[in-house]
Amino acid sequence: MSDASNSANTTPAFSDNLPRHARSADDVLESLDVSRQRGLSSKEVRRRRKKYGRNQLRETQRRSAWRILLDQFKSVVLIVLAVAAVLAFAFTQFAEGVAVTAVLLLNALIGFFSEWRAVRSMEALRKIGTSRVRLLRDGRQRQVAIDALVPGDIVLEEGGDIVPADLRLIEANNVRVEEAALTGESVAVDKRLEPVEPDTPVADRSNMLFKGTTIAEGSAVGVVVATGMQTELGRIAEMAETAEKETTPLQRRLNRLGQRLALITLGIVVVVAAAGLAAGRPTLLMIETAIALGLAAIPEGLPIVATIALARGMWLMAQRQALINRLPAVETLGATGYIFTDKTGTLTENRMTLRRVATPRDNQELAIDRNGVEPDESELDPLVRRVLEVGVLCSNASLDDEDADGWPEQSQGDPTEVALLHAGFAYGLRREALVEQKDEAREVAFDPDVMMMATFHRLDDVYDVAVKGAPQAVLEVCTTIAGDDSGEDRPFDEDQRDQWLEKAENMAGDGLRVLAVADKRAAATDEEPYADLRLLGLVGLYDPPRKDAIDAIAACQQAGIRVIMVTGDQPATARAIGAQTGLVEQDGVEVIHGRDLQHPEQFTDERRRQVLRTRIFARVSPEQKLHLVDVFQQAGRIVAMTGDGINDAPALRKADIGVAMGLRGTDAAKEAADMVLKDDALSSIVAAVAQGRVIFGNIRKSVMFMLCTNVAEILAVSLATVANAPLPLRPLQILYLNVITDVFPALALGVGKGYSGVMNRPPRDPKEPVLTHGHWAAIGGWSTLIAACVLGALALAVVWLQLATTAAVTVSFLTLGFGKLWFTFNLRDPGTTIFNNDVVRNPWVWGAIVLCIGLLLLAVYLPGLSDVLPAVPLGWRGWSVVIGMSLVPLVVGQTLRAFQAVRQ
After folding, report:
1. Which of 147, 342, 414, 569 is catalytic?
2. Interior CA angle at 203 toward 197 and 208, to 5°?
């Protein structure tokens, strides 16, 4: 191998057939043409930087304020309104044009300010890597900025360092790395130098260090094999950047509704205008009528109502620990049928604790909980106590800062060792006190090759050796086993070894992380620590399930929502936690390994069906999470994905609802998500889903309200035009009613508390529109009845009261206005009573009705406003027609609801 300082004109061979993790360290160094002793030369570094660029993630364009504002006008309803405004100005109908434009701007501003905090996941990803790193260049150690690294640099890492690029290890001294943010692994992983198989998943590449992870302990030397966007972190960033975000169900439904309304409007305008012109009516009058029909057909208040209802939902969810980044996400939660959740911290407490101690005498369950009853040391078996003592001594973790109750608040070290220290602490075995009695003379650090750790402690003239490690490794070097009830140590033979291995496997099957504990006496500190040991027993530690997660999963199942675990942990642990939380009914349920999710484009139909019915996925990589979301979405499922690490960002963005953890989540995950849980609790997602369902039901009621009354306007104006009768409504009167008496009652319906049993129903069919065929039939019936009442009021005003045209139109105008207000009560849920239902109990509805009554009176009695509309004051006979005809739809509606209740 040549020295890189003399090879400035060479090019590193990056076209090797085998990946770096599958090759030996020497081969990797040779392929990169770099010396382990000298590193790269400065000249070679400049050449490689020119070729490969700086070690940083690619910046993406921010979503500017103007872009956010323009996005508010993507709704088909708003586009039709904009066309109506342009036509109004074109035909000198300036009042109508200004009014419609004001509606457009109001909706845009509400949406703009609600979405100001939009997704910027790439900015969070770029925060990683702003410090400096130690490396070898020109034969000397140097410190350079992380973004100055190039492939081939020799990097020196120690405990606490953040890995600056993807490195192939060439030296490793008891290295353990925190990779949870990248792979989802909940505990630090051991690293070693040996090559692994080419197709080994990222989480199992034990000879690699990845950009963005942290060295938990030990020291290492590695050679840079990938920088910037070529790193695993870069690949995740690219996936997050390119992951296509599906439009939300509400957006799709409202767009379809808007398209249908646009077609209906165009058809009605053409037919009525043609009929009017054929009847010889003036062209200008028909233009005015066309504008009136266009305004009547489009519910101007719909975008405003939907936006404000979602914004209120956002506020309510914030009170339940769920922060929403994007408005449409509020409703999408209501359609969610699948929740992909990680394990650690969401289903479990993210706190390793000691649960079980198995000794030759007995298996003892220990519940170490600071909130529990103080353990009675007199009940602790002496052998169990010895197991705890060895676990406390054989450790380099520590507990600090006891709180007011005397329980340690802070801890440092591996979670399993911390759990053992907590267990010892609970039983009065504090490491500091034990070390004072038995001074630590030697520590043999944990070695991933032998999977054990040992400490020597001075005890009179001998040394007490404490050992812990993987059960298979410890059992292999034990020659005796602690005495049973007889108290005498016994030889440890192969049959007993097999029995204890089986016991360890059974404990692991219960979701426990199992360690074996042993000891011996040694004459000197240089004695071999892992020979002639005495087996004391096994300890089982586990990350307990969250109590609220168990209840939340049960609530999801009641609501027809499937909770699916997608974790980076091992299948056995995932399966056990799934059984303990009620996610699956038994611990033998099928678990799909991440490696089996590769190449989803090659899945057979049977394979896809298998994936769709599986409840637990283990050892899943970031790319596989993204593929998993896509498989479910392609099958028409509405998917919510939870996550907390950098590795989750692409799937969070791709999912219909991305849910990030607020307490332990990375910035990348929070910025990529649609929702952030402040308490990291699955129960908060369930509450948000319930709120989402309520919001969709409320929006559906609001749409029904507006369309029933708006279609009534169309029918009334169209029939009057065809019959060559006076128009019952003027264009500005229509706009006034649509903006005032539509928006406020519809908004009140949109912010109601909704049906209390909403989570007892299954999720909606993702293909179900906002309005079903049944809803459209109801709209046809109600609008016909309301239009008949409006035209009937106009006829009574002209024929019976013999009012002038303006006064008669005022009667029909007020009849429609008050009829809309009373019609609100017809939208109560079937099965409820007239005085006890979600509409009557909604204080916002009563406030809206009082407000709208005042605005209708102002339209008639306020000078200036009454002149523009136009409208004139009425006598008692005119008001009697208005009140009587406006109440007819309410009486009919309540009668129908009463018959529905009887039939049920």
Report:
1. 342
2. 65
